[in-house]
Amino acid sequence: MKVKVYISNDQREVKLTKGIRPLIRKCCKAVLAYESFDSDAEVSVSLVNNEEIQKLNKEYRGIDRPTDVLSFPLGENGEYEENHETGAKLLGDVVISMEKAASQAEEYGHSFEREAAFLTVHSMFHLLGYDHETSDEDAKVMRSKEEEVLTELGVSRETSYTEK
After folding, report:
1. What percent of the chain has pLDDT over 70?
2. What domains are defined for the chain?
């Protein structure tokens, strides 16, 4: 399985640490491996500021305030469009507010990297069809899977990410 993660940094408010892009790529790949996703895949990750994510949140969810992450899945029920040149499944788009990630990391008392990893993993599960807003049970399942993947990556709640 080959996974292509396109990352664009469309914000200037938060200076990105050197390891953040490789960490985001690892998170995307780890979720797909955890879920035994066996096809080649592509995902787009946009790093934005609060202003931009607020616009998207208002436009797509009718909520006029910034949020930490938005997911725009391209597939449904395990069916995905394909890149006709590569055959890779197009999973969708992840949009992360770096300002929110930084403030939440401070609020929760863990590293910026841990927060960025959590938001990436969380969003990847959404791209694969998981939804924590449908029921408490679905939320528990999703949260459990997120923590398992983060622990596998070495970014559990108790630790901060360091390049291995």
Report:
1. 95
2. 3-153 (3.40.390.30)
